[in-house]
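pinging the channel bc i need a second pair of eyes. not urgent but kinda urgent?? the chain im working w is below, pasted from the shared doc
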Amino acid sequence: MKSDKPKQQGQIEVLDPARANALLATLNRTERVGVGASLPPFFHQIYFWDALPPEQLGRDGHPQVGQGDVPDMGLPRRMWAGGRLEFKASLKAGHKARKETTLESTQRKQGRSGALAFVTLRHEIWQNDTLCVVEWQDLVYREDLDPAREQPVVVQARTDAETQDDLVPDSTLLFRYSALTFNGHRIHYDAEYARDTEGYPGLVVHGPLLAQLLMLKAQDELGAFATFTFRGVSPLTHNEHALLCRNGPDLWASGSDGRLIMSAQV
């Protein structure tokens, strides 16, 4: 359902090329950008930080819900479930940009594993009075872990990849990506919290990090694209061997057991 009173917030920032180059190095990319160069797709994620003092953070390291963009849906466990992006013009490094965020919709439902809440945020990135990127960010909130509840059904990934790349994400990659995106979510760096509080077998690889890698793969192999959609299906943990795959405009990530981790399309 649509939210009754959409909130809108704006941020203005110069898109520092040094930060973009730090992400390129983190992702083991050899190219670098200078002032005026086009940023790779999705690199706006490392800008427009929501830097809050510790007393305004929740137990998971994220900003407390109920302030800013995200309402309090009464559920403590957060995941980035997926998103849609429209790339209308290239963002230029070293130039000022403006991000406008609107709370587009909220929904609460009952799933097999308990109560779920879905929040969709709409982000617009403007530069020089030009709308460059529109992003719909889908977040899901869950109840605390209960081993007695039914576990999600494992979905197997397709096996008809035309191209595939190996990925073994280590804790250094997760730390550096968290730092560049100013993401304080403890599931990405606090193994004890990830295991004992949220029930993961290890540190969780960021959903947008996987989406970023799939976008760069699509750009390398298919060239520039106007839209990108992605959906997280199951978590990937650090040091687990994964595959980044493509068949035509379809992309996906699969785990070491063949399960589908993320699906995407350009």
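so The first strand starts at residue 8 and ends at 14. and The two ends are 27 Å apart (CA to CA). — does that match what u expected or am i reading it wrong
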